[in-house]
Each structure stands twice: as structure tokens, then as C-alpha cells.
Amino acid sequence: QDTLIVWSEAENYDLALSFQEKAGCDEIWEKICQVQGKDPSVEVTQDLIESEEEHIEEMPETSPLIDLPTCELNKLEEIADLVTSVLSSPIRREKLALALENEGYIKKLLQLFQVCENLENTEGLHHLYEIIRGILFLNKATLFEVMFSDECIMDVVGCLEYDPSLAQPKRHREFLTKTAKFKEVIPITDSELRQKIHQTYRVQYIQDIILPTPSVFEENFLSTLTSFIFFNKVEIVSMLQVSMELVLLRVRLMGAWLRRTHNVLVELPGMDDLQVRSAATDIFSYLVEFSPSMVREFVMQEAQQSDDDILLINVVIEQMICDTDPELGGAVQLMGLLRTLIDPENMLATTNKTEKSEFLNFFYNHCMHVLTAPLLANTSEDKCEKDAVVGSTKSNTICPDNYQTAQLLALILELLTFCVEHHTYHIKNYIMNKDLLRRVLVLMNSKHTFLALCALRFMRRIIGLKDEFYNRYITKGNLFEPVINALLDNGTRYNLLNSAVIELFEFIRVEDIKSLIAHIVENFYNALESIEYVQTFKGLKTKYEQEKDRQNQKLNSVPSILRSNRFRRDARALEEDEEMWFNEDEEEEGEAVVPPVEKSKQEDDFPDSYEKFMETKKAKESEDKENLPKRTSAGGFKFTFSHSASAANSANGANSKSVAAQTSPASSNSSSSKNTTLTTTVTATKGSLVGLVDYPDDEDDDEEEEASPRKRPRLGS
């Protein structure tokens, strides 16, 4: 069929191969026909199977049904073979279903089950398992109504306990009747509603727990069972909505459950009972999924009466941070709930108030510092300096992260990336106040590639907004440096990190983000021009030169006097803009570019809070003493970059700011450990650019330079 090749399997599954072009489709078609010994010029080679579905619809009521064996113990094997054999044919499945329904056969089979169980007839019980399982796969709602009635459902569950592949039968009936307890959150007086709830729970249990995971060819066999459960739930909700009093009950109930859940979660750090912790988390999960707006309203009211450290959301964040599970299963679940709560898509807006603005103001003022505490603590300068390279005078910027810490930081970065996409003003304010992107990019040096990719994804989302405030923040802070160093460090390895970095720069090129293109080309092109397996960086240089030519043409088209005045006026405007963005008196790291976030009294002490969280965590797990491998560049070059904006600026005083660092290609002998480095520091002062070039004094390297191959340099600052 042009770009499709379709066929049917024996069990009536339609499959297809899809091709982008017809030529490719024809080529494969010819090969298939060659194997089959068929003529490729014809459009159909498979022996056509008449549409069985159409035959079912047209089948007269007098069509002969399948003759069922008599329902006796000695016929169970024959019945099992019959049920199994019809599953491949829709017509035979339909005929068998009609026969079972007309003769009341299912109830007779369940009576035989009770006999077999009383006689401990294991062989008969195994046959009954196959029979009942096969009847479920007939996928008929009319049969489900019989099987899942109060009279029959427990016997159906009993038959499914005797799986022939298991050494011992399961005890599903014992669980459903003794372990599982029905708890009425609100009083339910309608007996029909209660029966429907019980039935739905048990049928869901059969589908999720008892029946094995269906294979690809069995998935459609249980589609009606899935629909049966769904429509049961719809009916339950409809019955509940009849009484409007339940609305008030729900509100009271939500408040009560939130208060109880909060009390339990506050006590969790000292609890060893995993079941209690799991139950509390599950309850919180149900509440958030049921009504996130009500949970938000509760926590905002709570903030008026409680300190930040015992707010419900902060307690949840603490539980996420202190999760002792090596795979952080609980942390992943809690992170998903937090994302639901801070998602503007499910926040309400009314004429009187906007839930989005109120809740996000609350979250960023009272909770964000708790969420980012592990990230800031693990990327601080003190933390990184402790992991110094032996024998080196430079600090090692590889953060000392074990696998579990790396997983936690990745979860936090995922949530922060979500905030960048959905919160605009609030997260922009926070990023610039805390110089957060610089701290995140420290993780580009992590030994865990997935964490480095999370850090890169965070920056990619920021750049993807094409917001000039962010762009100025990135260029002023020289924040491309750790990304480019990661690319150079990666060498010639063609992996996900390489592709992700290249995609970042390709996006900048395609979207023609002029301020970033100019910054990259002016400061890093010398280090990147040797990368020729993609045209991204040459493309950036071309874009840069084209823009420069356009500016020159505009400038040349203006009379000299006007051009001089215009230039001076632009310079003043630029100077005023600079002062708006970066105050001359940078007394504090990470000056705010937008109005600062209101600080809560807990925020100043967030490192202490984080240490308190981690003490609890360390008490429950053995300390990971894994030694981190030391990263080395393929060319033997090392670099350090400042983690604070103020540290980078202090060297040049109040009227000059270091905005970039770049190196020219250097040469080194492969058999020698010596390195020759040419470092260029571009210093921006008011009204001028001055390039300072520092040449190494090692004269011994001059003779080696010509003979040694070129190696890709790392950037120095």
C-alpha cells in the first residue's frame, strides 16, 4: 500500500511496516515476495482470510453453537482444551461465549471447583484454572457479569489460585476476605453502591494481581475487562454525586486527612516503621491527586500559624532529601507530587484572586530554599575545594557526589527545570538572586553523566526561552565556560553528552540569538574551531560575521557627525543598562536583577537545615566512601573557574569586570607531561576592551612545540 506493508497473524492481529519513501517500501516488498516465492508485481500475496468480524455480525441466530462437553470431573481436561483452542478464532470465541451463556455453564464449572477443592483434586483444579482464564480471555461483558457477581466472584478467584506453573497455590481469597479491609471514609448507606465498590476492587485485583501480565498477542483479550472496571468506576462516581451533602463532607475530610498526614510526616524522620511511612506518603499522594487546589489552600493557611521548618510541603521535601532507598523510590514519588502542586496548569483563577500568584509567592518565599539546599550545599566552593587534585595547585571542581546524592540532585534539577518552563518571573528572580545557574553548572564535572546532562538540560531550558535578561546573565557570568570545557573534556567520544552540547549551540545558531552568538565567537571560537565533524561552530562564526557586516553597513550609511553622536549616545545607554544589571558596589554574591525574593527567617540558615536533614539520613545508611576518579583532559589541560560572580570581579576593581577567558591551541609532547598554554583574558572596562596576553616562561618547550602534535586545549580563567 504505497509506503505500507500490512499483514495478519494467525491470531487475527493486523501488523504493518511503514516506510518514509515508496522506493524503500518496494525494495523490502520484493525481498519478502522472493522469500515467499510470490510475484512482487501483485499487491496481495497472503491467502486472504475472510473478515470474521463481518461474519460474526451477519451470523444468524440459528447458527449452530459449539457443543460443550458435559460438565463433569472426568471431562475437565476436554473442556480446558476446547476453551484454549478457540482463542485464535473470533468466530469460535463468539460461539463458545454464547454457548457458555445460554447453558449456565459457568456456575456449573464453579460447583465442580468446590468439589475438586474438597477432594484435593490437584489435576482438576489445574484444569479449572486454564478454563476460567480462557473464559476471561473470551472478552465478553455478559460473561463478566456472571463471573463477577457476589455469588460467583470468590470461586472465580479460587480457580485462579491454582496456576499449574506454581509449586503452591496462592492465597488470594484469604487476602481479599481477611487482609483487605473496606474503610468508609464517609458513611455509605446505599447497599448497591457498597456492592459496586466491593466488586470493582476485586475485579481490579484480578486484573492487576492475579492474571499474569498479558503478552503482546493477549493484550486485546482483556480490553473488555478494562472497560468493565472503568464503567464501574464511572457508575460509582455518579452514585456518589447524587448527594450534594458529600461536598461539605469532602472539604471537612480533606482538612482532617491533611492535618493527620502532616502530623505523621513530621514524625517520620524518627520512625523506623516503613509501613507507616509508606501509608502516610500514599495518603498524601491521594489527596494531591484528588484536589491539589485544596492541598495548596491548606498549606498557605498553615504558613500563617507555623514556622517554615514544619510546613507540610517542607516536611515532604525533607522526606525526599532523606530517602534511604538506594534507588530513591520514595523521593521520585514525592517529587512527582511536588510537581503537581506547583504546576500552574491545575491552578484556579477567579475574579477575586489568582491561585497561581498567591501559591507561587508562598512557595518561593517559604519552600524553595529547602528544595535547593542539597544542590547549593554540594556545589559550594568549600565543598569542591576539599576534593583537590593531589600535587596540583588548582582546585578540582568535580563535586564529591556518590551515586545516591547524584540521583537526588538530578531529581531536584528536574523540578527546577520544570519551574524554568512554567514559572517565568519567580524562578528568574530566584536564579539571579542565588546565581543558581553557575552553581548548577558545577555539576557538569560530575563523574555521573546523567547528572551532567541534567545540569545541561537546565541551562538549555533557560536559553530556550530566548529571554535577553537570561542571556545577559549568562554572558556577564561567563557561564558557557563549564559547558565548553565539558565538550572539550569529552574529546572525540560520540555520546549523549557530546550530542546534547552540540544541540545547545545549534539551537543558538538556528534561532540566531545574537548576543549569545557574539559572546561565544568572541571568547571561545579559538578553542572550538578545530571541531569540524559538525558545522555548528563555523555556522556561529558566519552568523557573527554577517551581523558585524550589517552593523558596519548601517554605521557607514550615517554621516560622520551623526554617527559620532549616535555612538556616544549608545555608549551612555549601554552604561546605564550595565548599572541596572550589575550594581557597581557588588557587596553580595549574585545581585538580583529583578526584585529580590522575600526572605523567610529560615532561609538564612538553610545550610544548617540541610545538615540536619542529612544527619538523619546518614544515621540510617552506611556512608559511601567511594573514591571519585580524577578527571583528566585528553590534552592534559586543567582549568578552574570561579563559582561566585564577586570573586571573578574583585580582581579588576569596581569599574571593570572579567567577562571571558579563552585559550589558543597549544602543543605538547606526547611523551612529556609538560604543557604549553597561551591564555588570553579579555577585560571589559567602561568604554574600552583590553586584551592581556600571558606567555609561559618555560623555554624548554619551544623545541618540542614543532615536533609535537596539536592537542585541543582546555579553557583557562
Automatic annotation (TrEMBL):
One GO biological process term: DNA damage response
Pfam entry (one): PP4R3
Ranges of biased composition (kind: Basic and acidic residues): 598-629
Segments of skewed composition (Low complexity): 642-690
InterPro entries: ARM-type_fold, EVH1_PP4R3, P4R3-like_central_dom, PH-like_dom_sf, PP4R3-like
Region (Disordered): 579-717
Family per similarity comment: Belongs to the SMEK family.
Name by which UniProt lists this protein: Serine/threonine-protein phosphatase 4 regulatory subunit 3B
Species whose genome carries this gene: Cuculus canorus (Common cuckoo)
